[in-house]
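dumping this here so i dont lose it
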């Protein structure tokens, strides 16, 4: 069997374009299992939280430019460095949002056809991040217009359908964001 796991509890899994398997564990540990040559590379995420300890990795994602992004509990937005030897916090603008998401709980990623990353920040909302300009825009719920904003600030997962619509699963319904115009429709359970 070619895989030797660091820990029995695997919290995230991703296969990259080269066929390598990435695994996320608790305490911010991530591994890349390579096939050619057969091997394993380990990465340790850091945390800017008061405890100083990162939580479990919940999401690993490779974008269209083969950059690997990672997030988890109290980890904020991190990425594998271009040399592939370590992880670092991704630069984020504006600075106010960089501070807000520094210890965010990230649950998922998606990429649109313009190269933007869409990031699920559990407890905050949904973010659109441009990896080249480092600009982040947040989408949050608005109780005054619940059918045209994110359904709540606790999104769990995200996916992009074949019609370029972004779907966000939340603790209170689902939100559809039509791209590129970012038109939002939210669907709730019938009471």
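and the seq i came up w/
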């Amino acid at each position: 069997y070619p895989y030797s796991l660091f820990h029995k509890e695997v919290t995230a899994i991703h296969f990259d374009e080269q066929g390598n398997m990435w695994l996320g564990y608790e305490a911010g540990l991530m591994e890349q299992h390579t096939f050619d040559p057969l091997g394993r590379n380990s990465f340790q995420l850091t945390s800017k939280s008061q405890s100083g300890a990162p939580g479990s990795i919940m999401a690993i994602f490779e974008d269209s430019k083969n950059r690997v992004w990672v997030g988890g509990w109290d980890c904020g937005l991190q990425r594998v460095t271009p040399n592939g030897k370590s992880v670092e916090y991704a630069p984020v603008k504006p600075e106010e949002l960089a501070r807000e998401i520094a210890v965010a709980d990230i649950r998922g990623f998606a990429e649109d056809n313009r190269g933007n990353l869409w990031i699920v920040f559990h407890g905050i909302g949904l973010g659109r991040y441009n990896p080249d300009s480092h600009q982040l825009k947040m989408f949050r719920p608005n109780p005054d217009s619940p059918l045209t904003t994110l359904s709540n600030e606790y999104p769990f997962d995200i996916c992009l359908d074949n019609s370029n619509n972004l779907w966000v699963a939340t603790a209170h319904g689902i939100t559809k964001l039509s791209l590129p115009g970012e038109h939002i429709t939210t669907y709730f359970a019938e009471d």
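Residues 76 and 101 are 5 Å apart (CA to CA).
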